[in-house]
Amino acid sequence: MMNQLIQWLKIQKDNFKNASWGLWFIDPPKDVSLDGYRIDKVIQYTDLVITIYFSIVILTLLYFIVKYRSRPGHKADYDHGNSKKHVMATLGVGLLVFFSVDTVIETMSFRDLKEAFWNFPKGDDVVRIEVMPQQFAWNFRYAGPDGKFNTDDDLVPTQNQMHIPVGKPVVIQIAPWDVIHSFYIPNFRVKQDATPGMINAMWFQATETGEFEIACAELCGNSHYKMKGYLTVDSQEDYENWLLSLAPEDDEEDEWDDWGDDEETAASDGPPSNWGWAWKEIK
Ligand SMILES: [Cu+2]
After folding, report:
1. SS3 string of 25-66?
2. pLDDT tens-digit profile of 159-182?
3. How close is the Cα of 153 to the center of ligand 1, in Å?
4. What pLDDT, in 10s, does the model give residues 107-142?
5. Where are the domains of the chain?
6. Which numeric CATH code is attached to 127-247?
7. How far is the CA of 213 from the centre of ligand 1 (A)?
8. How many Å apart are CA 152 and CA 150, to the nearest integer?
């Protein structure tokens, strides 16, 4: 029992040392993306200013609690205050908060959107992936050798398995099969809703290899909590090999396709195997 406790304390100590903010229990997942630091900066700024304002409010409250505490010989004083002075003071504090919190965060966020998140990469090295979430799994689709989506040579990995190469910009287009879902990769600080009837887009770039979690960030049904996918960031070579491993072996697949092609399976709950769409170029 004692040994276990010591072991546990040691783990907590290591976590504390490795945590970027010192607060290991709220430390975010490691950022492995090109632009994730932008999100962290906004959060850190927000945390800093709200900590300062919260401290000021609590200290002021404590000061008045002590100053006007009940004690012998001290009578309560009834005062209607100076309404003009108090309105001005309230307005002043309100404006201070507005300009030091809201305005700063808004400015940072719009700069980040313009410089990074809405500034979609163009060029030949962009990796394109189509994503179709369903209740309760993630479907991915790669264009295959012809570079076009929704053609016979598309590459469709096992559900919930997504691979990308390290150091390359990745653009995803996402549309759900059924209800609203949200594609969220905490280690990349990015999230995009999948909205029925729309094709939404998002881009990101990995800075290191590894396996990371994909979570659904929109309550989408009774198994929402276990709607989990895996994003593997490969070296360029591993990524190409993985793509090769997805290529169907001559016609073998067709037999399997025909095999279960009766009405009953067609009416099953997932999307059909050709669920993709023509890639929409972002201007
Ligand atoms: Cu979902």
Report:
1. HHCCCCCCECCHHHHHHHHHHHHHHHHHHHHHHHHHHHHHHH
2. 999 999 999 999 999 999 999 999
3. 28
4. 999 999 999 999 999 988 999 999 999 999 999 999
5. 15-68+84-117, 127-247
6. 2.60.40.420
7. 14
8. 7
